[in-house]
Amino acid sequence: MPAFDDDDRPKKKIAHEIGQDLSLLSVDELMARIAQLQDEIKRLEADMVRKRDKRAAADQFFKR
């Protein structure tokens, strides 16, 4: 079985990096990144709500 070197694996393209130089991106690319980041914010907020709900249920159960 051949051994794989880390350099042989496909690199996952980073969609956006905080603080990244934006000067080479087109308006369309910037709009796409904004949409992607907005979707990520929604996902993070939904997860935060689920975690708060679980915590509230646990607090209620244990009468904190």
What structural keywords apply?
elongated, mainly alpha, 64 residues
What topology emerges from the helices and strands here?
Elements: H1 27-62
Question: Can you characterise this structure?
Answer:
The structure is a single chain. This protein has 64 residues and is mostly helical. The chain has a domain at 25-64. It is 56% helix and 0% strand. It contains one helix and no strands. The protein has one helix spanning 27-62. The longest helix is centred in the last third of the chain and has 36 residues, at 27-62. The radius of gyration is 20 Å and the shape is elongated. 0% of the residues are buried. The mean pLDDT is 87.
Provide a quick synopsis of the model:
The protein is an all-alpha fold and 64 residues long.
Distance between the termini: 56 Å
Instruction: Classify the oligomer.
Output: single chain
Per DSSP, what share of the residues sits in E-state strands of 2 or more residues? under 5%
**Anisotropy-based shape:** elongated
Largest sheet: none
Count of beta strands: 0
Rounded average pLDDT: 87
Helix content: 55-70%
Total helical segments: 1
Q: Name the structural class.
A: mainly alpha
Unreliable stretches (pLDDT < 50, length at least 5) are none
Radius of gyration of CA atoms, rounded to a whole number: 20 Å
H/E series, N to C? Answer: H
